[in-house]
Amino acid sequence: MNESKTSKICVVMPTYNNDGTLRDVVGRILQFCPDVIVVNDGCTDTSADILASFGDKITIVDYGKNRGKGHALKQGFKKAKELGFDYAITIDSDGQHFPEDIPLFIMALEQNPNAMIVGSRNLNEENMPGKNTFANKFSNFWFKVQTGVSLPDTQTGYRLYPLKNLPKMRFLTSRYEAELELLVGAAWRGLDLIPIKINVFYPKAEERVTHFRPFWDFLRISALNTVLCILAIVYGLPSRAIRRARRRHE
What is the distance between the alpha carbons of residues 23 and 44, in angstroms, rounded to a whole number? Predict the structure, then answer.
């Protein structure tokens, strides 16, 4: 991809209490993308000090109180647009994603302009929690019902978003399942969703830092899927069909 196109890509990384991995992840991202926006989603550990140590190498969005990943992404995308970026790669701060995979997203974008590039994890990876594998298969099934599109990994947070073509971000939820809502909205808008294989690292259970609450988070995901299925019938699938028909006749 030519330099002018690459210069329009930034990385947006929400973070909440991941000070054990934060410095390493940001440092590695900077090796592959000089434009990094970190959203401090109300961290109560030493994350703020770690981010401040990078000085003007990164842009920090900080609103003081934890609002959830969905809200953090919304604020990160807003800042990216203000700064003139056309694309944003989102990555988690807990160390499970490899910043070394950033060039894979850029190459995929070059081959699929204006598409959303969706990282696809190996769900049989060593130390992959069993509940993650089940939750992803559950999510993949309902995503296909809601959009007619098959994807191997609908729960990954490692993605490249074309900011100008994103659906309006009026989230039904402000938590991490907002990423699913974004994916469904993008499919309804007729965006091409291109999966690419990415590496993933899961530490041993005793070393893992997670903010996932199995009962309540699964309940919220189920409620969101119920609403999305209803919206798919009355809006999403008809809208997608109309957009695809228009594209065929252009």
Answer: 16
Please state, in angstroms and rounded to a whole number, the distance separating the CA atoms of residues 26 and 30.
6
| Residue 14 burial (C-beta neighbours within 10 Å; 0-12, 13-18, 19+) | buried
Strand, coil or helix: what is 169?
coil
Q: Is 97 within 8 Å of 15 (Cβ atoms)?
A: no
State which fold the 3-249 domain adopts.
Answer: Spore Coat Polysaccharide Biosynthesis Protein SpsA; Chain A (3.90.550)
pLDDT tens column, 126-179: 656 656 667 788 889 999 999 999 999 998 999 999 999 887 766 556 666 789
pLDDT in tens, 200-234: 987 654 444 555 555 566 677 788 888 899 999 98
